[in-house]
């Protein structure tokens, strides 16, 4: 049964994952009106000790009442330890993730958002998240070419420009289909 307080946004494209997680964070923010009730934790870990610290910081933040009462909105941003990297595959990291399951099921008034990239979809913790959170795998929703086109055309629309026929495909080929770079280059072209 998915928790209404736990959100997991995962994928292979860090830009797409961050954009979707930011959208959810901003959507939940009105429930936590003061800045002191919202916290963003850098989820990048180079060692098992970093994973343990990140998870301990998240637990502490979720279990600490906001200054004005009530829960907190906590975002573990850019977690990079749910994969087969040296850190992600380490038994210490797996043990630390296993120990979080209990308190993640008891968030109370707090909400936790986890965004992670890259991920190993067979990781045991990801399997648990699929069953126990509002889980979204950004990469599974649309093909890379379609997401690149959507993001670049959206950026062009925001800038008040339009691409000529074939221009989006040309841009994609030139920059290797990287979503973030496509948006940045579109904004540069419009300036």
CATH topology of the largest domain: Rossmann fold
Radius of gyration: 18 Å
Structural class: alpha/beta
Work out the helicity level: 40-55%
The CATH H-level superfamily of the largest domain is P-loop containing nucleotide triphosphate hydrolases
Low-confidence stretches: none
How would you spell out the order of helices and strands?
Answer: EHEHEHHEHEHHHH
Mean pLDDT across the residues is 89
Q: Could you say what the CATH architecture of the largest domain is?
A: 3-Layer(aba) Sandwich
Biggest beta sheet attributes: 5 strands, parallel
Task: Determine the number of helices (DSSP H or I, runs of at least 4 residues).
Answer: 9
Our count of domains comes out at 2
> What overall form do the CA principal axes indicate?
globular
β-strand amount: 5-15%
What do you see in this structure?
This protein has 191 residues and is α/β, with parallel strands linked by helices. The protein folds into two domains: 134 residues, Rossmann fold (3-Layer(aba) Sandwich); 47 residues. Helices cover 52% and strands 14% of the residues. Strands 2-3-4-1-5 form a five-stranded parallel β-sheet, with helices on both faces. Helix 2 links the parallel strand 2 and strand 3. Helix 2 packs parallel to helix 4 and helix 7 packs parallel to helix 9. The N and C termini lie far apart (48 Å). The mean pLDDT is 89.
């Amino acid at each position: 049964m998915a928790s209404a307080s736990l959100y997991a946004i995962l994928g292979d494209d860090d830009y797409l994952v961050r954009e979707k997680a930011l959208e959810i964070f901003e959507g939940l923010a009105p429930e936590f009106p003061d800045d002191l009730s919202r916290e963003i934790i850098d989820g990048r870990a180079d060692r098992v000790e970093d994973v343990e610290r990140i998870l301990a910081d998240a637990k502490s933040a979720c279990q600490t009442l906001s200054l004005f009462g009530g829960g907190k909105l906590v975002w573990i941003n850019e977690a990079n330890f749910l994969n087969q990297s040296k850190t992600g595959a380490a038994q210490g990291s797996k043990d630390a993730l296993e120990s979080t399951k209990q308190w993640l099921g008891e968030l109370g008034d707090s909400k936790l958002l986890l965004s992670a990239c890259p991920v190993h979809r067979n990781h045991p913790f990801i399997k648990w998240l699929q069953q126990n959170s509002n889980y979204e795998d950004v990469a599974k929703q649309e093909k890379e070419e379609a997401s690149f086109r959507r993001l670049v055309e959206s950026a062009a629309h925001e800038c008040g420009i339009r691409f000529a026929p074939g221009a989006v495909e040309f841009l994609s080929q030139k920059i290797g289909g990287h979503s973030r770079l496509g948006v940045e280059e579109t904004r540069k072209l419009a300036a």
